[in-house]
């Protein structure tokens, strides 16, 4: 015979289990929904130390099947699923290029070496020439576990992309992964977002404003100048809208104009 105390404990247990199940389901949905760097380390926004499980740096796609920062219900297209071809190679593969971003929070100049990342540089050049980045927002700031500002989405919500994907490049540039599977992306680094799968970069990229540990699966293709790094640091200092560690920056960052030219 179950007495009243036992019954209360049983009901409390069942309620707790239901809450845990709902939270687990919510986490799964959030993980699918988020796109900048997918499945990064499990650091913690939750626990504060080495690996950030639910903050991925992934890239969306311009089609309705887009993904969002970490990965939405539908991920960015794989190379075989891309709706458009990668831009024809037109850059000088032996040259250096500069991507200049005029933003509402200051100018950011990014040096890019086409010899190391020809597909990435060529894609950014083709997109910038079409004014693809003009009047777009940097939609995501992370301030716990990983320290980046993510930009390059024409929709401004993490779901946009150019309709094609480009191959990963330069993945060994930051050294060999440590025991935790990560390498350090130094402050000032600019790298491609993806869906967590190989060769799924599109137009979204992230600006590292503080040394950040991530898996070596995101193409590092550029370096910010000092003024640009300071501008991003100021945005980060203002924090995330709503006071969380991951979301839209409190200081809205709009790329008013983006150009790519040979240095």
From TrEMBL:
Pfam families: Pro_isomerase
Stretches that traverse the bilayer: 35-55
Gene Ontology MF term list: peptidyl-prolyl cis-trans isomerase activity
Region listing for Disordered, in residue ranges: 1-31, 57-89, 239-263
Lineage top rank: taxon: Bacteria
Every PPIase cyclophilin-type domain range: 106-260
Keywords attached to this entry: Isomerase, Membrane, Transmembrane, Transmembrane helix
Signal peptide limits: none
Protein name: Peptidylprolyl isomerase
Species of the source: Streptomyces scopuliridis RB72
């Amino acid at each position: 015979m179950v007495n009243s105390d036992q019954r209360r404990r049983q009901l409390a247990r069942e309620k707790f289990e239901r809450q845990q199940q709902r939270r687990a389901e919510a986490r799964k949905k959030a993980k699918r929904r988020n796109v900048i760097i997918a499945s990064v380390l499990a650091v913690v926004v939750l626990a504060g130390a080495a690996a950030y499980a639910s903050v991925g740096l992934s890239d969306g796609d311009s089609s309705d099947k887009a993904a969002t920062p970490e990965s939405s219900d539908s991920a960015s297209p794989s190379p075989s699923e891309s709706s458009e071809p990668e831009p024809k190679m037109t850059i000088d593969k032996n040259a250096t290029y500069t991507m200049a971003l005029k933003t509402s929070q200051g100018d950011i100049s990014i040096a890019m070496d086409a010899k190391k990342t020809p597909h990435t540089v060529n894609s950014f050049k083709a997109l910038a020439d079409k004014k693809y980045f003009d009047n777009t927002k940097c939609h995501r700031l992370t301030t716990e576990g990983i320290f980046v500002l993510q930009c390059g989405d024409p929709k401004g919500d993490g779901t946009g992309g150019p309709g094609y994907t480009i191959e990963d490049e330069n993945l060994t540039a930051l050294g060999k992964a440590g025991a935790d599977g990560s390498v350090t992306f130094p402050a000032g680094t600019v790298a491609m977002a993806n869906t967590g799968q190989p060769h799924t970069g599109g137009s979204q990229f992230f600006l590292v404003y503080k040394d950040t540990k991530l898996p070596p699966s995101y193409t590092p293709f550029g370096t910010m100048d000092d003024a640009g790094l300071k501008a991003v640091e100021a945005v980060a200092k203002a924090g995330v809208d709503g006071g969380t560690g991951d979301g839209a920056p409190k200081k809205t960052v709009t790329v008013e104009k983006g150009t790519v030219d040979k240095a």
